[in-house]
Design goal:
two-stranded antiparallel sheet; 206 residues; 5 helices
Length: 206
């Protein structure tokens, strides 16, 4: 947790990280260029099979962003890096997902909202320090039992990789979702409002 405290201090010192219409939402990449983005909903490579984000960007609540940066610091020391598949998600996209997959095991009911809509959840995986993908149980957005943390009909290597990611995320307070090995939420998500601001509006806000 010492990394988390250091990152919070850094965030407070960076220009533009202030209250706005999006609350304390910040661009994760603006202060940690070691992270890698592969925002799937900004492409057609997702279970919707179409692009639903207006830009590729990773926005999170300030405290959540600090936790994620702390995880990255840990992993770099172990020879890994984080790749981010999704972070803040406008709530209207949640309704589109629910219409296609109305199953709370895999898609949060938009009436209640997802932690992604609050900007305090991330979908992540591991890369090697050189940027090569690390073997995981499934691809992102696999809606099957193979994506469960409890699913163990896997190679030893894959189980180990999943555990490395999980341990790093939990060590900074993130809470895993049992049905998706890639999904983690900030433990204080409850205090953030549901948002429906587009990613481009967040990027170009004044």
């Amino acid at each position: 947790m010492k990394y988390f405290i250091l990152i919070i201090i850094l965030l407070l010192q960076i220009d533009g990280f202030s209250q706005s219409e999006g609350g304390n939402m910040v661009d994760e990449m603006s202060f940690d260029s070691t992270l890698v983005l592969d925002i799937r909903y900004a492409s057609e490579n997702n279970f919707l099979n179409r692009k639903v984000y207006d830009i590729e960007a990773c926005y999170l609540q300030k405290e959540t962003a600090a936790r994620l940066a702390s995880v990255q610091l840990q992993l770099i020391k172990k020879g890994y890096r984080l790749i981010i598949f999704d972070a803040y998600r406008p709530r209207h996209i949640q309704y589109e997902m629910w219409r296609l997959v109305p199953d709370p095991r895999y898609v949060a009911d938009p009436a209640k909202g997802s932690n992604h809509n609050r900007g305090c959840a991330v979908d992540v995986s591991l890369l090697t320090k050189d940027g090569a993908p690390v073997s995981m149980p499934t691809d992102f957005d696999d809606l099957s039992e193979k994506a469960y943390h409890s699913y163990n009909n896997l190679t030893k290597e894959v189980i180990t990789n999943r555990k490395i990611l999980k341990n790093a995320m939990i060590s900074e307070g993130f809470i895993p979702l049992e049905t998706e090995w890639w999904h983690y939420s900030d433990p204080e998500c409850y205090k953030y409002p549901l948002l429906n601001i587009t990613l481009s509006d967040l990027k170009y806000r004044k």
